[in-house]
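Progress against Task 2.4 (sequence-to-structure conversion) is shown through the following example record, which the project officer requested during the mid-term review.
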Amino acid sequence: MKAFRLWLALSLLILLGACTGIPHDFEKPKVTLAGIAFKDANLLQQRFTLALSIQNPNNISVPISGLNTTLSVNGEEMATGVSNEQVTIPALGEAVVHIDVVSNLAQLIRQVRAMGNNQTPSYKLAGKLFLPIRPDGIAFEKTGELPPADQWLPKQLR
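Structure tokens generated for the chain above:
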């Protein structure tokens, strides 16, 4: 019984010590869409590479162990992706992470037809950043406008 109590006390001390590594005034990193590029396509799906700028407003560096994201265009989910790219965002700095996302042909055709040639499509980028100190992830969401489709979508898909 004494051994169990000792083990329990040591476990609690280790757990409390781990919590001290997370600052009380930790601010969520800010994620913005820095670029979108067409990668490849086949009959059923298209792949795009998103460049995400991650800004760290904290005065400590933040290690990112991966992320997931969903890109919606004009209110419709267009593409999803995951990345296990590990990067450390420097204190009060930023880094760009590239993530491949996949859309299916039906989604893409609907979006392109809805956009028209000169319309500026709106987007919503949502997902989670995974940190070793927060394995459940930190949610992010960003909205904005994409450039016209003729600037990032190949002619044969417009």
